[in-house]
Amino acid sequence: MKISQMTTDQAADVLIRISVPAANIMHDDETIKVLEGVAKGSNDPFVFISENIVPVTTVLLKDHREDVFEIVSALAGKTADEVKNQKITETSKDIKESWDGELVDFFASLKK
Description:
Elements: H1 8-26, H2 29-39, H3 45-61, H4 65-76, H5 80-85, H6 88-98, H7 101-108
């Protein structure tokens, strides 16, 4: 569920759950380096994706897998184990259904 669609009470619970894993990701030197590269990326969507998919996926799923599972699960109203063990198509759906500007603003506020 999108943060912007939650009640204040629901959003508070989700933000509490995702604060630590989000900070783990955003305060990691490798993540910062990758995101700086993303920020300087091409305006062409195909070039942008091809230049960034490997470094972003690597840093998130290799170095911060459990953090990602916790964030996705909090937003989807599931446990991290449920996300970890569900089909990737369901996880992809959970991510798409929860991504919005309010969530992006929250992550941006965690930058060093």
